[in-house]
Design goal:
The protein starts with 5 loop residues before the first strand and ends with a strand. 14% of the residues lie in helices and 35% in strands. The chain has 635 residues and is an alpha+beta fold. The C terminus is likely disordered. The strands form six sheets. Strands 28, 29, 30, 31, 32, 33, 34 and 35 form an eight-stranded mixed sheet that branches. Strands 3, 4, 5, 8, 10, 11 and 12 form a seven-stranded mixed sheet that branches. A hairpin with a 4-residue loop joins strand 34 and strand 35.
């Protein structure tokens, strides 16, 4: 004779006296007293699902229809052997929960606050004990998560369950309303969970992205919802790490968006008060972030862009030859190549605003090509600069030869008194005497000059494709040398604008926004500003070979030491750089980034003090009391 089944929930009151009788847990079991239609046979089994539902009431017997929310379900199969026995088809290592509430997001609308909500309301937990005689599962206690915001305004709850066998309802929710409880301020307790909001580089949510969370060695995959939000409910407070489960898929999805040059004009990622991590997509390995239960975490996904800026005297006016003053800094490139392989390298050339655009556009591209040839030890490209097909004003000749010879390591010690540079080179390299260099001698000279930096982007073991681009005079720098000048004057001769920049991109994504090799920017083009905006790492390459990875931070105070000196003009002198003219802000503070190590001279109202440049993660603010003494204070 067939037996019918239903779910049985036995209340287990564990609340202490005086706690309004709240029920914290129940025992979940199975019984054969139901009146369903399943016709389960003793020697067979059927697919089964137990679903839980929460009914909320303001009064225990109000007559009003209660608010109801599904809490989740268990799937498996039921047999009558030794039972009834429910065997779960899934690993029950987490609580069953449905999540509600608004996603963590900043306010982008005009007039609204940029302050985000801290995180979604955390679910609260109702523990259930499985009856070992009725369940075969690795989970001894099942935790049902009740959405916290759904409890607001209610005083009582009812836990209901429904049993399906073979796709048919064996016992309905109405037949299994056996657990009643009181909602108090203390119970049920909050359930620990990890909250993540995934956004892109302009603050848009990234939906349907699989995330991998490692919680104490347990790997779990989460998928972000339409608002970019994902939550992992855990068993105990702690920390976990999160990464992108499929980097290649996310990269393919974002590549068309990142190829758009106007992307930066459509918004930027909002500033969040909660902890934020930037994920730069590079290669196949996912970045990771540490999560803390109970605290929301924002992850901003950006394309990988590393910017190396050549800073100093690299080119003469209207010239493309890489001066010997630049070679010291080029030695820093070996480590940069290794850190950015595999990848794509975009070499971008610039000019100052002197000269006509018809001259500056091709000149900037030629500078980019000249540097790209130096980086890859491409002697043939430089040899062509001596040919008569090159305009005479930019054609290379004896002055370039002399600069290269003077830069050679043995020039200072091996040159004989009164010997010319060319004579020195011909003698020490075994060439016959002559007034100038021939084609073969010049090839030898260029080869040695290019080898002085000890780095080659084409070296074995490196995988870096090189693309060149010219920006003409369209993007000069402002007086700080850090930002673009939005209203530049024409006809200015400025050494800092005769520059070349190296942008390194992920190999698979390539240059974004894309440009073709040998192309040039037009006035008002969007690609170059977008490359700068996306650069998450910037390294200055000083012409003297000094890494520029430090800063100074000062506060100027009055003689009494009590009044900050706002808008006070100052001058900073760094060896090898033009003097920097700046001023303090409203709080009397001044900061200068991308400085070499050492002590730099700061002048205020005729008072000179030396200020030490420190790593950027150290804030050391010397308090200058004008006219008196220098007080150093670490903060």
């Amino acid at each position: 004779m067939a037996k019918t089944l239903r779910v049985r929930l036995d209340p287990v009151p564990t609340a202490a006296a005086g706690s309004a009788g709240f029920i914290e847990g129940v025992t979940l079991g199975l019984t054969s007293l139901g009146k369903g239609k399943s016709q389960l046979k003793p020697d067979a089994s059927l697919s089964a699902k137990i679903t839980f539902r929460l009914a909320l009431r303001k009064e225990i017997r109000s007559g009003e229809e209660p608010g109801r929310e599904l809490l989740g379900s268990l799937s498996g199969e039921i047999s009558l052997e030794g039972g009834p026995v429910f065997t779960t088809a899934e690993a029950l290592e987490e609580a069953l929960t449905l999540e509600f509430g608004d996603a963590l997001e900043g306010k982008a609308e005009a007039g609204e606050s940029d302050e985000p909500s801290p995180h979604r309301p955390r679910p609260r937990v109702l523990p259930l004990e499985l009856d070992p005689a009725s369940f075969r599962s690795s989970l001894k206690q099942l935790r049902l998560a009740i959405p916290s915001e759904k409890l607001s305004g209610f005083r009582f709850f009812e836990l209901e369950s429904e049993l399906e066998l073979g796709g048919s309802v064996e016992a309905s929710f109405e037949q299994n309303d056996v657990l009643d409880g009181r909602i108090t301020a203390e119970s049920p307790p909050p359930l620990p969970c990890y909250d993540v909001l995934l956004i892109d580089d302009v603050g848009q949510p990234l939906a349907d992205v699989a995330l991998s969370v490692d919680d104490a060695g347990n790997e779990t995959e989460l998928v972000t919802d339409a608002s970019g939000f994902a939550r992992l409910v855990t068993q105990a407070p702690g920390t976990a790490t999160v990464g992108v489960a499929d980097v290649a898929a996310l990269r393919s999805r974002l590549k068309p968006e990142w190829n758009k040059p106007d992307r930066g004009k459509r918004g930027r990622a909002p500033e969040f008060s909660v902890e934020t991590t930037v994920f730069t997509l590079r290669g196949e390995e996912s970045p990771s972030a540490v999560l803390e239960s109970g605290r929301a975490h924002v992850i901003c996904v950006r394309p990988y862009v590393f910017l190396a800026r050549l800073k100093g005297v690299f080119f003469d006016l209207n010239k493309t030859f890489l001066l010997k003053t630049a070679i010291g800094g080029m030695k820093d490139l070996r480590a940069i190549y290794q850190d950015n392989s595999p990848g794509k390298l975009l070499v971008v050339g610039h000019t100052d605003t002197s000269g006509a655009p018809s001259t500056n556009d091709p000149l900037s591209l030629e500078r980019a090509r000249s540097v790209a040839a130096y980086l890859s030890d491409d002697v043939a490209v430089w040899e062509k600069q001596y040919q008569t097909s090159v305009p005479e004003s930019r054609r290379w000749g004896a002055p370039e030869d002399e600069q290269m010879i003077e830069a050679l390591l043995d020039f200072e010690t091996g040159r004989q008194p009164g010997e010319s540079t060319v004579a020195f080179f011909r003698r020490t390299r075994g060439f016959p005497e002559a007034a100038s260099l021939g084609e073969g001698e010049r090839k030898q000279l260029i080869t040695e000059y290019m080898a002085l930096d000890g780095a080659n982007v084409k070296d074995e073991g490196l995988d870096i494709a090189v693309v060149t681009h010219g920006c003409g005079e369209n993007f000069p720098l402002d007086e700080t040398g850090e930002n673009l000048d939005r209203s530049p004057d024409d006809g200015q001769r400025e050494q800092l604008d005769r520059r070349v920049e190296l942008f390194f991109f992920d190999k698979e994504l390539g240059v974004q926004p894309p440009v073709t090799d040998g192309s040039s920017s037009k006035p008002g083009s969007l690609e170059y500003p977008e490359w700068r905006r996306r650069a998450t790492e910037i390294q200055e390459i000083d012409a003297n070979g000094r890494p520029r990875d430090r800063h100074i931070s000062v506060i100027l105070l009055s003689n009494s030491g009590n009044l900050p000196l706002a808008d006070r003009k100052l001058t900073l002198n760094v060896d090898g750089d033009p003097p920097f003219e700046g001023s303090t802000d409203a709080d009397g503070a001044f900061e200068k980034l991308n400085l070499p190590a050492g002590d730099h001279l700061l002048t205020v109202d005729g008072v000179e003090v030396f200020v030490s440049a420190t790593p950027t993660d150290i804030v050391k603010r010397p308090h200058v009391v004008v006219g008196h003494v220098l007080i150093t204070e670490d903060t």
